[in-house]
C-alpha cells in the first residue's frame, strides 16, 4: 500500500481500509500490518535543518550582490553624465571661440577703414602694430572716437555708431569682460534692431552667469529672426532639463 505524503490523507485511507477489512484487520496478521505502517510513517525522513539555513544564506547573498551591483551602476551612470557634461562644455567653448574670433576679425579689419579720425594714417598704423603685440587699447580708442562722432551727427548715424561700439566690445573682451558687455549693451541701445548686437551681448551675459539678462537678449534675437540664435547656448536656457 502506497502511503500519501500528508497525515490527513493517510488517516482517511486507513479508516476506509479498516471499515472494509475489519474482520481480517483484528486478526494477528492485521495487527502486524498496522504496526508496520505506523512505524513507517513515524520514521519518514524530514528535511534537514541545514537546508533551511542554506536558503536563508542564499537570500542574504542575493541581497548583498544586488546592493554591490547597484553601487557599480550608480558609478557608471555618473561617469556617463560627467562625460556628457564635458562634451557639452567643450562644444559650447568651441562655439564661443568661433563667435569671438569672428567678431575680433571684423573689428581688426575695420580699423583701416576709419579714415575720418584726426591723423588717421599714423593712428591706424600704430593701432594695428599694437594689436599685433596683443594690445588693443589704441584700436578701442579709435572706435570709441568714431562712435562718439556718429552719435553727435544724429539718429541717422546711430547704426554706424553701434557698429563701432560692437567692434570696441570685441576688442575689449580680450582683457575686460565687463567693458565688453558695456560696449555691446551700448550697441543695442544705439541700434536695437540689430540681431548681432543682441546675440553678442547675450553670449557674454550667459558666459558670466547673468542668465536672466542673457535670456532677455536671446529672446530679442529670436524676435528679430537673427541667424545666430541657433548656435547660441543661451537660446536653450528655458528648455526642459537645462540647469537654470
Overview of the molecule:
It is a single chain. This protein has 244 residues and is mainly α. The chain folds into two domains: 7-39, no CATH class; 96-236, Serine Threonine Protein Phosphatase 5, Tetratricopeptide repeat, CATH 1.25.40.10. Helix content is 74%, strand content 0%. The protein has ten helices and no strands. α4 (49-110) packs across α7 (158-172), α7 (158-172) packs antiparallel against α8 and α8 (177-190) packs antiparallel against α9 (195-207). The protein is rod-shaped and about 135 Å long.
Number of domains: 2
Shape: rod-shaped
Report on the biggest sheet. Answer: none
Question: What structural class do helix, strand and pairing data support?
Answer: mainly alpha
CATH architecture of the largest domain: Alpha Horseshoe
Name of the CATH class of the largest domain: Mainly Alpha
Enumerate the spans where pLDDT stays under 50 for 5 or more consecutive residues.
Answer: 228-232, 234-244
CATH topology term of the largest domain:
Serine Threonine Protein Phosphatase 5, Tetratricopeptide repeat
Kindly state the percentage of residues in helix: over 70%
Oligomeric state as shown: single chain
Rg result: 44 Å
Write down the overall mean pLDDT.
82
Helix count from the secondary structure assignment: 10
So, the CATH homologous superfamily of the largest domain?
Tetratricopeptide repeat domain
Distance between the termini: 81 Å
Strand tally: 0
> N-to-C SSE series?
HHHHHHHHHH
Q: Tell me the β content.
A: under 5%
Amino acid at each position: 500500500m502506497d502511503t500519501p505524503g500528508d497525515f490527513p490523507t493517510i488517516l482517511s485511507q486507513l479508516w476506509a481500509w479498516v471499515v472494509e477489512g475489519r474482520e481480517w484487520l483484528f486478526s494477528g496478521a492485521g495487527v502486524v500490518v498496522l504496526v508496520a505502517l505506523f512505524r513507517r510513517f513515524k520514521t519518514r525522513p524530514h528535511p534537514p535543518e541545514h537546508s533551511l539555513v542554506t536558503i536563508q544564506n542564499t537570500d542574504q547573498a542575493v541581497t548583498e550582490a544586488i546592493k554591490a551591483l547597484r553601487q557599480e551602476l550608480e558609478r557608471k551612470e555618473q561617469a556617463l553624465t560627467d562625460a556628457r557634461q564635458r562634451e557639452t562644455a567643450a562644444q559650447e567653448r568651441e562655439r564661443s571661440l568661433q563667435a569671438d574670433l569672428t567678431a575680433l576679425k571684423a573689428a581688426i579689419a575695420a580699423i583701416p577703414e576709419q579714415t575720418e579720425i584726426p591723423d588717421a594714417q599714423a593712428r591706424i598704423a600704430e593701432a594695428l602694430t599694437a594689436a599685433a603685440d596683443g594690445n588693443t587699447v589704441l584700436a578701442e580708442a579709435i572706435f570709441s572716437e568714431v562712435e562718439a562722432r556718429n552719435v553727435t551727427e544724429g539718429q541717422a548715424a546711430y547704426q554706424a555708431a553701434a557698429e563701432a561700439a560692437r567692434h570696441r566690445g570685441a576688442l575689449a573682451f580680450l582683457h575686460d569682460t565687463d567693458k565688453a558687455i558695456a560696449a555691446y549693451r551700448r550697441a543695442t541701445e544705439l541700434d536695437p534692431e540689430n540681431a548681432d548686437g543682441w546675440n553678442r551681448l547675450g553670449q557674454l551675459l550667459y558666459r558670466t552667469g547673468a542668465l536672466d539678462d542673457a535670456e532677455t537678449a536671446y529672446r530679442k534675437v529670436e524676435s528679430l529672426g537673427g541667424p545666430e540664435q541657433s548656435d547660441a547656448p543661451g537660446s536653450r536656457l528655458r528648455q526642459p532639463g537645462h540647469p537654470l
